[in-house]
Amino acid sequence: MQSIANRFLHRALPHLTALPAWRSVSRSSFISAAMRGEDPELGEFFDYMEKLKNYEKIGVPKDAGTDSDDGFDLGRMRRLLKRLGDPHCRFRAIHIAGTKGKGSTAAFLSSILREEGYRVGTYSSPHLLTIRERISVGSGKPVSAKVLNIFFHEVKECLDESIQLEKGQLTHFEVFTALAFALFSKENVDIAVIEAGLGGARDATNVLTSNNLAVSVITTIGEEHLAALGGSLESIAMAKAGIIKYGCPLVIGGPFDLHIEQILRNQASSMCSPVVSACDPGVQGIVKGFGPVDGRPCQFCDICIQIKKDLDLSIELSNVKLHMLGHHQLQNAITAVCASLCLQNQGWKISNESIYDGLKNTELPGRSQFLSFKEVGDLGLSRVSVLIDGGPPDAFFIFTIAHTEASAKALADTITMAAKGQRLAFVVAMASDKDHVKFARQLLSGLGPEVVVLTELPVGPIAPLSLVDASAAVDIVCPHEWITA
What is the mean pLDDT of residues 221-225? Predict the structure, then answer.
């Protein structure tokens, strides 16, 4: 997992040499470098997948994620899985949706279950450098190129038939999701942790049924993909509530606005699903301190859960060491613990020790990730800390793929906690369809970075908006030079 971060940084760091305060570099170099880093034996697989419609690249159509006539056709996904033998019906699953936090929550849960000895499949999106990161089986590492290539050729004939019968309408995400589910079935996973891609109700992952779904999790509700999910927080909440299944417990992370939480609770009530809230009055999580452990920054936390409503759940964990930093990551950890306790309630064997160790051992490249002292040294740097989001240092390099107001605030809080008073340098990657003004207001106001390196990536038909322009809109004053390479 660490090699992913190092590969990314080795490509990015040359752009930081003798920079003025603001500079833009094309992201195409990052993308092409990532592709060159793929195993050559996957060439045919990538050629095949590139021919499919990829909404991650071209932008998601209006209302495509809503449970309406304009929403994605789940029937297409179900027919594809049926031709593959309905692999998604052969393992138990935890389904996670949410605007933010679902990837980290999935990582915490997968780590906890692996600590207990379960064979875990994990499906997440998007990825940093290789699409193989989206699938892991057993070890938690990305599926190997060899395994993915062999399995692709095993099912290719079925995929060809399905694409033809669906008149070419199957998408990149649908096909890759089906491949993940089929691989989980073949590898006989005990349980799969499945992260939804967009929304929930019409997401390709939402083919799981109450027969094999163990727990649904909704982490947060925020203003992202507004047009694709109906145009309001309420419609986004309804879309994500679509993963709730009859009789299956729902864990909600939060915090939520009261009327948004009520939408989720009403849907759960209609499905006779008990609700467990990570913001319940009986839940307490405290960050006690911050310091290095094994050469990497760590936050020390206490977690106490005493829930009586709907389900009777309890645990006390003292001095939990989280390498995933920030109060938002503590909240994600608590959400994962609540889901683990729901599994305990259903008869799954999960010890408190496995929960403690699973949280401690969770790592996720690009999510509030500090490189170790050794990794920083391997990059040829000294007296510098490197934080990727996605002795004391003289400066912090922050590589961020955060792109919403909420994630920018969470990152700013983490930087304030871990790098207070230090010189800051940011590398920011944002698509053109994000709210640059709100992002700039949250992340740049008050932190005063000395260097900001910007990349550009237009998505769909939307014209790029410069973060430099966004910074001016919120009165962030700093000298700048804008160079497109």
Answer: 88
> Nearest CA to 267 among 303, 291, 239?
239
% of the chain at pLDDT higher than 70: 78
Whether 38-360 and 2-34+367-473 are alike in CATH topology: the answer is no
Fold of domain 2-34+367-473:
Protein-Tyrosine Phosphatase; Chain A (3.90.190)
Strand ranges inside 211-263, DSSP E: 213-218, 250-252
Instruction: Estimate to the nearest angstrom the gap between the alpha carbon of 22 and the chain centroid.
Output: 28
| 296-307 and 313-322 strand pairing | antiparallel
Domain ranges in the chain are 2-34+367-473, 38-360
| CB-CB contact of 443 with 402 (8 Å) | yes
Per-residue pLDDT tens over the stretch 250-271? 999 999 999 999 999 999 999 9
Determine the distance from the C-alpha atom of residue 424 to the mean position of all C-alpha atoms in its chain, rounded to a whole number: 25
Helix, strand, coil shares of the chain, percent, nearest 5, are: 40, 20, 40
Non-local (6+) Cβ contacts of 224 within 8 A are 99, 100, 236, 404
φ, ψ of residue 69 to 5 degrees: the values are -65, -20
What is the CATH T-level fold of the domain 38-360, as seen in this structure?
UDP-N-acetylmuramoyl-L-alanine:D-glutamate ligase (3.40.1190)
Asked whether 142 and 42 are in contact (CB, 8 A), the reply is no
Closest C-alpha to 17, from 449, 457, 477, 425: 425
Tell which residue, 208, 133, 141, 212, has the closest CA to residue 176: 133
pLDDT in tens, 170-190: 999 999 999 999 999 999 999
DSSP string covering 192-216: EEEE-SSSSTTSTTTT--TTTEEEE
